[in-house]
Amino acid sequence: MRRRTATWVALVASTILGMAKCSDDIGPRPPENTVAVIVSAPVRVPAGAAGRGAPAAAASASGTTVVYVSLSPGAVPTGAQAVITNQATGWSVTTALMDGGFDPVPLAASIGDTLAIDITSAASTVLAHVRLTVSPVRPLKVVRTSPPSGGRDVPLNATVVIVFSEPIDPTTVTAGAIQLLQDSTPVAGTVQFSPAPDIIAEFRPATLLAPQTAYRLIVSSQIRTLAGVALASPLSVAFTTGVGVQTQAAATLVFTGQPSNATAGTRISPPVVVTIQDTLGRTVTSDTDVVIVNTLAACCVSGAYGTVALKAVNGVATFSDLHIGHAAPGYVLVARSGTLRTATSAAFDISPAAPASLSFQPPPGVPGIGVATVGQSFTFDVAIVDTFRNTVTSASNAVTVSLSASPIGATLEGTLTVTAVQGIAHFANLTVDQAGTYTLVGTAGTLSPARSEWHAYTPGTFIAVSAGSAHTCGKNSAGSWYCWGSNAHGQLGDGTTIDRSTPVPVTGALAFSSVSAGSNHTCGTTPAGAAYCWGSNGGGQLGDGTTTDRAAPALVAGGLHFEWLSAGLSQTCGLVTDTLGEPFTYCWGLNDHGQLGDGTTIERTTPTPVTTVAGYGLPPLQLNNVSAGGAYTCGLNFDTGGDYCWGNNSNGQLDDGTTTDRTSPVLIVLVPCGSGPPNFVPPVDCPMGAVTPFNPTITAGGAHTCAHAGGAYYMSFAWYCWGANGSGQLGDGTTTDRLARVLVGGGRSFTIVSAGGSHTCGVAGGSGTVAGDAYCWGANDHGQLGTGATIQQTSPALVAGGFSFAALSAGGSHTCGVIAGGGVYCWGNNSVGQLGNGTTTSSSVPVKVLGQP
């Protein structure tokens, strides 16, 4: 599996497009449980259950609980699929329906959590939507039996199967608790559990049943759950046998050759063997289905390499070349094959290989770049790694760091040689004496050296910025965040609702790795992944479970760990990395146009997973970056590279060729070169027949969207925009709205683009441009284009001042940028102090934010 870090993109926020929904609106009542979905009480995850799926793995890792959700056969006869979501955590599982029901599936949940169960047909029509609250006590039930009650022509060699609603206490399963009777005479046989989890009991008659005879299965209330809760009521199931013996069909997979511990990159030996068996535990030698194995690790990114899909031979699949590159303890293999019951292997460990090279491990910041303050100590680690980038914990080499490149005359001081402990050399007291860009090199004998780029800034310099509708936030070189401008809803996070024309620190002594300014609210993530929001909360956009404004950071509910957040008009979206290292997308807040992407228009006050697009990834949607705009949201798919948008589409900002709102993500269409929708301009070097996806960055504005066109057949830094264009914000030389993408500025190259309320700005890069020059286009009534005038521009216009910019962020009607080497300048509307220069006078040229050297 791949693990990508979201690219740092200056957040866009937009002007208000409509009135927010009143916080005291009364929503619809939750649907009743009309289809009798069964939800167990919380159950502790049994030992070894970490391999049974991400939700169970998460519960096992955190020491919490799971619930089991099931539906008896016939409850929804035309149902094909059920999606079960814990709305408190966002965890979600999908299961197929068979005969109108489904067997118990586990989902991490606690008492009081709300579960949403959506059942759809094969045509994706919603047949039932149920919400249930997890209760501390639930009666044990029987979900189904095989044969069912009233069954006829049952094979004489049938095994009687009882599926319970949750794991049962094996000590309560006795010969008296489960019986098969012919008239009133007990039938000789054995009772046993099917493979884990212990929710399925089987009665196996000792001999063939009599033909055309009535039998009765009795399940008594002696059966109890692991918590001691008894079966709700005794069960009696009558059925009649036929005259024939049925050949047992393939039913389950079993690891008959378990994986053993191995070294990263080496084959697991002896080979792993998976056998296809029937319900009686016999190998189905006629079966030649394809068996697929993959890994599941509770710690990190996982993935098996080699031959992972094999066609069984005589019912047996032997995997002789499996190997894993990532070293970690507690791996398990999961085997799958069509509708057969999956199998989970015993746990095994992967150890690091021999030391091969060094790797810098800088603290959180811009990916791959360290940040330091002149004259102040900075820290980092250098890891001794193998060829698969695993830290070799047994290594104790002496590691030395030195300067490979630096400002003229600059020096690096401190302890320059450190002995590694458990494969890590920790450098804690290094300093540099000049601002600028440094390249550090680490060496250790014959190991391949490592290099790391660092930016050193003068103390107090702002090095990151995010512009909202009428407020701005910035980070200084010490890592502290400040905000300024409009504060009517507490969006500055200083504990007040007083507007500020100079930067004020965000209260709470929280360290944020990134902050995103929205319309009237702000959100940030800590280095540990905790999410906080503050400001306007009328639509629930702060995610704290309320609709109450907050003047100081409030913790986002759900306990999810975010690596990136984007605050929009009245919604917030973020990327969550799960236990497998995959980034999933969650949104919360106002949802009147479907901007949360959960398939509804229901307001959410806590994080809710974005609906999965059919055929891509797993619920919720996997995105590499996400950008929340006016009343819509866009992002780049993690695995496919395709961009998706959802929500308000009144101006064509979703790029699906319509103006129809979408409550679920829609794929931005892949267009063959040389053809396309009206106004589509193909890349100049795109050969006929080539397919051209959009990637890897997307930015959502007030009602327009821009995306970087990557891919093998695109110009390196070409950008396309679509949607609202009444002020020329698409940069195509017109003021015509576009339902499909148009090339910005005739193909002018930009490394970064940020879409604002009704204007757009970018940092130039690539051939034919001066790297670092800033250009803006679109509305300019407040000077937000920075050209020195207030005339709108329909094509990119150079920002005045001669600055070289490293980043830009376009707000509602102002713009801010970080200049190369550090320092934030802003321009445009300043009616509430959003330029941060101590005045409320608008400026059509960049002005320096106060409080910086």
How far apart the termini lie comes to: 45 Å
Count every beta strand, where a strand is a DSSP E run of 2 or more residues. Answer: 67
Task: Name the beta content range.
Answer: 35-45%
Q: What share of residues is helical?
A: under 10%
Sum up the overall morphology in one term. globular
How is the main sheet built?
6 strands, mixed
Radius of gyration: 30 Å
Name the structural class.
Answer: mainly beta
Residue-averaged pLDDT: 83
Uncertain runs: 1-31, 46-63, 297-302, 614-619, 669-695, 711-715
Q: How many alpha or pi helices? A: 1
Please provide a brief summary of the model.
The chain is mainly beta and 853 residues long.
Q: Could you name the key traits of this structure?
A:
single chain, globular, 853 residues, mainly beta, five-stranded mixed sheet, disordered N terminus, six-stranded mixed sheet, 1 helix
